[in-house]
Amino acid sequence: MIAEINGCQLAYDVRGDGDPLLLLHGGMGAGADWRYVFPSDPDGFRVIVPDVRGHGRSTNPSGEFTFGQAALDLFALLDHLGIGTVKAIGLSGGGITLLHMATLQPSRIASMVAVSAPPYFPAQARAIQAKFSEEMLSETERRAMRQRHVHGEDQIRALVEQTRRFAVNHHDVNFTPAVLSTITAETLIVFGDRDFLYPVSMAFDLYSAIPHAYLWIVPNGGHGPIFGPHASAFVATAIAFLRGEWRP
What we know:
By secondary structure, the chain is an alpha/beta fold. About 35% of the residues lie in helices and about 20% in strands. The protein has 8 helices and 8 strands, in the order E-E-E-E-H-E-H-E-H-H-H-H-E-H-E-H. Helix 1 crosses helix 2 and helix 3 runs antiparallel to helix 5. It is globular, with a radius of gyration of 17 Å.
């Protein structure tokens, strides 16, 4: 499905019945990536799976991208669908977008799982962002990008340039403890202890600042430790959390 949202065409899928569950993919990814985590949609949820602006099937005529704008797009999509409050999972850039949503309109996020989502970009991440190019990806990753992003080479070049711009943007991803303290959602923070972009200490910063937070450090987990051998444990843990089974 396609919705006209804030000057772009936002592609999304909606499946199932139950509590609305928003799944937000990572940077340079697409909503379809979640099929590598969830072999089938979790029972008891109405799953909303968008491609954020400029990714996958979605367009971005302005050529500009911020995670804050992506959050506003998703609020508009939820309004379009008549959904007030959601539960949510966000991976990497999707997790950053989710942090924006949870701080901009706290009452609309009932509970959330933020995976490999930093409160700010550290120097080691900015160094990688500044020199990022498509050539840094393996041939398998490049083929996957061409399958995900259906608007051709211009779309892929725009995503690469977008990543480089993150290196010099210090405003969009700047979640101070004071800002994070406004989050009312029950929040599960998931971090790999071998993340090459974001040191695991950032997970503890989030845990300390977000009032109703739980922390899961994945041993030997890299960036986005929810795929492959980690997927089944992640699904079981995240869905139990979102169902409220962790409450005392």
